[in-house]
Amino acid sequence: MSTIEQFNKHVMPTYGRYDVVMESGEKRVATDENGKKFIDFGSGIGTNSLGFCDEKWVEAVCNQVKTIQHTSNYYYTKIQADFASKLCEMTGYSKMFFGNSGAEANECAIKLARKYSFDKYGKGRHTIITLVNSFHGRTLATLSATGQEVFHNYFFPFVEGFTNVVANDIDDLMAKLDDTVCAVMVEFVQGEGGVIPLEKAFVEKIFEECPKRDILVIADEVQTGAGRTGKFLASEHFGVKPDITTMAKGIAGGLPIGICLANEKCCDVLSPSTHGSTFGGNPICCAGGLAVLNQLSETGFMEDVAKKGDYLREKLLEIDEVEGVDGLGMMIGIRLKTKKAGELCKACLEEGLLALTAKDKLRLLPPLNISYEEIDAGIEILNQLMK
Q1: pLDDT in tens, 247-282
Q2: Number of helices followed by number of strands (H, E) in the chain
Q3: Residue 214 in 3-state DSSP?
Q4: Which distant-in-sequence residues (6+ apart) come within 8 Å of 248 by Cβ?
Q5: What is the distance between the alpha carbons of residues 347 and 385, in angstroms, rounded to a whole number?
Q6: Pseudo-torsion of CA 318, 319, 323, 329, nearest 10°?
Q7: How far is 119 from 362, CA to CA, in rounded Å?
C-alpha cells in the first residue's frame, strides 16, 4: 500500500490534496519521497517563515526537546517567559495569551472583546463587526466571524453577534457602528479572501471612531504578522496600534502556536478560569518561536524582506500573463489575464515549484529568508508556465 493510499484509508478527506508525499526539506527546498525537489514559494501557507530546518531554529527546538517537552499551565517555564518578553518588546503590547493556532488566537480575541464590554456595560453590547471577504478560522465562532457566505453552511446554528461591513466602505462602517458593537475585527491584508490590502483612509476611520465609543479594534495578523509584509506587524504600514492583535502561522517557524496580544486597556480582562489551553505555550513551540523572533529582530532582516518583496513584484510584472500584483512585502497575490490560478498552481507543482491560490489569484508566501537566486529560479518556472 502506498503512502497516499494508507493516508486516505485512515484520514478524513477534509483537504483537496495533491498526489505528492513530502519527505524532507532543507533551507527553501522540499524533497518528496521520490527525490524530486521543489522550490518553496508557499512556506506551508506562510508558516515556515525561515524555510526548512533552519540551523538556529533546529538547535533551539532540539535543545528544548531534550530539556522539557510539556508541563501544565499551572506551572511556569522560563522559555515561555523569554518568548513572551521578546514578543511584547517587539510589538509594544502589554500581555498575551498562548494558544495553538490562528483560529484559537481569534477565539481568544472574540472572548476578550466581549468580556471587556460585558464587564463595563453589561449584556447586549456584544456585536463584533468583521469585513466582507474576511477569513478568521474554522471553529464555529471564527467561521461565524468570517465574512464569506461560502463558509456559512452545514454547521447550523452559527454563533450570533457578528455583522459584516464591506471592506473600504466608510459609509457602511459608520452605518453599523451602533451601541451594540463591542469590537471591529480586521485583516490589514485579506489573505484567504484574495490578498487584498485595506485602504489607508478606511483603516484611519476605524481608529478614529472606535476609541470615541470605547469599541476595541482587533487585528487578525495570523497571516500578515511575523514579518510577512516587510514589517513585523502589518499594522505598522498604516501607523496604527490595535487594542488586540492575533498571531500564529510563521511566528514559530512551523510549530503550532497561536498568540493573542492585548494592550494595557484590556490585557487583564481574562482572569483565571475564563479562558485556557492545555497545550498553549508549549515549551517546544516557544523555543521555536523565540528562535524566529531572534532572527527577525536582527538588524536589516525586515528591510531585506521588503526588498525581496519589491524584487519579486518587479519580476512578476515583467511576465505578459500577469495583469497585476497585490499584497504587501512577501505576501503576494497575482492577477492573471487568461490562465486559471488552480491549474497554474498544479502545473507549478509538476515543474518543481510550491505555490498557493487565493480566490482567483495565484498566491505566493515565500520563506522570509529566501535567496535572490531561489526567487529567480521560481520566477523562471512561472515565466515558462505562463507563456
Answers
A1: 999 999 999 999 999 999 999 999 999 999 999 999
A2: 13, 17
A3: coil
A4: 99, 101, 102, 104, 105, 222, 225, 257, 258, 259
A5: 7
A6: -60
A7: 44
Cα–Cα distance for residue pair 289/143, rounded to 1 Å = 27
Separation CA 22–CA 32 (nearest Å): 4
- What 3-state class would DSSP assign to 69? coil
Q: What is the DSSP letter of 249?
A: G
Strands (E), the chain: 22-26, 29-32, 37-40, 95-99, 127-131, 162-165, 181-186, 189-190, 196-197, 216-220, 244-247, 258-262, 322-328, 331-336, 353-354, 356-358, 361-364
Asked if 29 and 37 touch (Cβ cutoff 8 Å), the reply is yes
Strand partners, 127: 181
Going from the C-alpha of 89 to that of each of 247, 293, 294, 324, the distances in angstroms are 15, 11, 12, 37
- How many angstroms separate the CA atoms of 77 and 283, rounded? 7
How deeply is 94 buried, as exposed, middle or buried, from its count of CB atoms within 10 A (0-12, 13-18, 19+)?
A: middle
- Burial class from Cβ neighbours inside 10 Å (0-12, 13-18, 19+) for residue 292 reads buried
Q: Could you say which DSSP state residue 159 is in?
A: P
State how far the Cα of 22 lies from the Cα of 358, in Å rounded to an integer. Answer: 22
Cα angle 246, 116, 163 (rounded to 5 degrees) comes to 65
Contacts within 8 Å (CB) and 24+ apart, 78-85: 79/283, 79/286, 79/287, 79/290, 80/281, 80/283, 80/286, 82/286, 82/290, 83/286, 83/287, 83/289, 83/290, 83/293
pTM over 0.90: yes
- DSSP per-residue letters across 318-371: TSTTEEEEEEETTEEEEEESSS-HHHHHHHHHHTTEE-EEETTEEEE---TT--
Could you tell me the three cell numbers for 157?
446554528
Write the DSSP symbol of residue 52.
Answer: B
Q: Tell me: the pLDDT tens digits for 145-203?
A: 999 999 999 999 999 999 999 999 999 999 999 999 999 999 999 999 999 999 999 99
